[in-house]
């Protein structure tokens, strides 16, 4: 049901030419994805998706739209090669899912690797009931540091490209 | 945007609640869903809402651009600093066990500080990006 909605919204996004409507639809798409994650019991991921995908990116996209205009120009020719690439890649991915273990299967490789150790030992080792937090911030602290640096780098990149100082120079000219 | 009375009143009502919720998500992330990343995004969402309703200038008076840029780096530094401190105390990089006599207490402190670093960096980066875009538009 939710997946069906996602597909419908995705098709609408591709078909529409009005970019304001497209941005609103991407926000709705993210909100649906968040609901989907809740249905899969991944509340932390759903929380992030709702806040970032539906909230902040929508605002940032609208801010960008204020700079570049509201209508997407019509594509000059139909792009058959990209369509073929997308179809082949999608087909390969769907084919790969046939090999995946059944959803929720306790014998799936991902549930037999480090997951049992986290589930059994993390409450004792970190004293935290939320295992997502203890994995993110403690066991995988190094990765999260990398993530934070990535966000910081993105911010620095935007500031370098759009930052305030050059604007002042332009006004002086 | 001086005459949107309903928007201004409603925004004034809900912005403090959003900020409070962000702090809750930040410091309750150990126990419930959430953490530094989500809290940072929610916190910056409240400030962006303020900027949208009351104008970019008043938002930049409340949270100056310079402060945003400094805090952006400070969050990463706090995270890295926790790692370096744990090394200085004789552990591995980001090994929180050494922060307190009891490993679990040290873990708790370390995770709290690290999440705070993530929250600070994420919220100020989002705000810096928004300021950059919105300021660009205001300049045209």
Concise structural overview:
The complex is a heterodimer of chains A (173) and B (140). With 173 residues, chain A is mainly α. Chain A has helices spanning 2-15, 19-39, 43-68, 80-97, 109-112, 115-126, 131-139, 141-162, 164-172.
Features:
heterodimer; A: 173 residues; Four Helix Bundle (Hemerythrin (Met), subunit A); 3 domains; globular; B: 140 residues; mainly alpha; 79% helix; elongated
3D architecture notes:
The complex is a heterodimer of chains A (173) and B (140). With 173 residues, chain A is mostly helical. Chain A has helices spanning 2-15, 19-39, 43-68, 80-97, 109-112, 115-126, 131-139, 141-162, 164-172. Helices cover 78% and strands 0% of the residues of chain A. Helices cover 79% and strands 0% of the residues of chain B. The mean pLDDT of chain B is 87. Chains A and B meet through helix 3, helix 6, helix 7, helix 8 and helix 9 of A and helix 2, helix 4 and helix 5 of B.
């Amino acid at each position: 049901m939710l997946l069906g909605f996602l597909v419908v919204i995705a098709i609408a996004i591709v078909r529409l030419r009005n970019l304001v409507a497209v941005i609103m639809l991407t926000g709705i798409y993210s909100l649906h994805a968040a609901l989907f994650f809740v249905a899969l019991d991944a509340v932390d991921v759903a929380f992030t998706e709702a806040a970032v995908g539906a909230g902040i990116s929508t605002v940032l996209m609208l801010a960008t739209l204020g700079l570049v205009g509201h209508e997407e120009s019509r594509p000059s020719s139909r792009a058959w090669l990209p369509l073929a690439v997308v179809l082949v890649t999608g087909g390969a991915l769907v084919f790969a899912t046939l090999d995946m273990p059944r959803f929720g299967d306790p014998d799936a490789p991902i549930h037999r690797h480090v997951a049992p150790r986290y589930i059994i030992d993390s409450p004792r080792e970190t004293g935290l009931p939320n295992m997502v937090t203890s994995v993110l911030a403690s066991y995988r602290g190094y990765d999260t540091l990398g993530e934070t640096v990535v966000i910081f780098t993105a911010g620095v990149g935007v500031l370098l490209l759009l930052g305030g100082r050059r604007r002042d120079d332009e006004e002086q000219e | 945007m001086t005459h949107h009375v309903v928007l201004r009143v409603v925004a004034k009502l809900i912005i403090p609640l959003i900020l409070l919720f962000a702090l809750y998500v930040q410091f309750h992330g150990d126990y419930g869903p959430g953490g530094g990343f989500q809290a940072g995004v929610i916190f910056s969402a409240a400030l962006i809402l303020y900027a949208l309703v009351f104008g970019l200038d008043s938002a930049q008076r409340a949270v100056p651009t310079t402060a945003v840029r400094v805090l952006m780096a400070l969050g990463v530094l706090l995270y890295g600093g926790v790692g370096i401190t744990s090394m200085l105390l004789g552990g591995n990089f980001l090994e929180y066990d050494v922060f307190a006599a009891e490993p679990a207490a040290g873990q708790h402190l370390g995770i709290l500080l690290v999440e705070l670093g993530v929250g600070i960096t994420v919220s100020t980066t989002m705000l810096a990006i928004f300021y950059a875009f919105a300021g660009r538009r205001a300049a045209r």
